[in-house]
Amino acid sequence: MFRHALTVSGVVACTVTTLLACTASVPAGTTADTTASATSSATSGVQLQTWLYPGSSGDSQCTAPSEYADNRVKNGALNPEYWTVGDNGAVTLETTAAGLCNTYSAANVADLKAHSTYQYPTLSGMTTTAVHALVKSKSTRTAAVSKVTSLVNSAGLSGVDVDLEDYWSWSTADFTNYKTFLGQLATALHANGKRLQVDAPAMTEDASFYDYAAVVATGVDDLVIMAYDEEFDTASGARCLPISPYDWLKNVTTYAQSKVPDPDHLIIGLPSYGYSAPDPCDLNSVTDNVQFSAMKQSPGFSSDPATIESRRDASSGEIRWTSGGTLYDYVDSVAMDRKLAVLKGLGVTKVSVWSLGGGNPWFSN
To answer: I need a labelling partner for 285 at 20 to 30 A (CA). Which of 110, 119, 147, 357 fits?
Structure first.
């Protein structure tokens, strides 16, 4: 999901991802000359879903319902964040009654169902402290499973999306207990005909902190690879990398396919957001997950088509420019189409987008 940027701990991921120079070519068939003719079928053959995250009234992410109202995922899934995990391992239901948009209410459930075929509300835990407390004991695991599945069953939702992160800081015991938790949750969901999605880190080779195949073996129905935030793997002293360079996206996807060969059980996450960072890159000062409504206010932003194309990065399709010693990067519809073309070329049939809200771009058709 990623409200949820990789923090500085994401630097550890450099040991398990391949850092590629920003010299990759645009994928075949997605050059500027051919994009226009290809967009009518950009999303054909792919089941789409997207994440929504909470905000207070007036926050830009609260525009998400007006965005999915166009039925862009009518045949796919909507994944709002309904639960958060506290540092004590307790699971709290986030509600519209508490003043939060994109959270649980009977009206929200009805709206999701009106605009999607599937609904997988997210259970979110963003720190190792929270994850450790949730999964360490049978009692906390059982309480969480009971709370989550009770709502899914009573509201007639499709299942659950589990987004427990800060993977690189987990101990071996944490990962073992995490798998136990997923197994318990999968069993409880499957008993009522529900499904389990699990969000996983982008990887290009085996690592000690996470194992795709082992996670799927717990009973997970869909493993969702969050193939973005590669800027946090930038080498010291270099310009920050794009959010999801084509070659890196290919490597992440092919590695995932080697561990989860059935395309029906693999979802690749693509970005729809931007970031800003000092130039050269300072990983401690990256402002990530910048919505398009905010990006438009950035110094030097331009809506002029010629300027946009002059700033389009060949290695990622993303729009990149510098102003006052700061690098700005965002993913527009063309970049989304081209990244999707990379995935379709690799046989991917399910794609999730982080995220709706704030006018973030969508695929061009």
So the answer is: 357
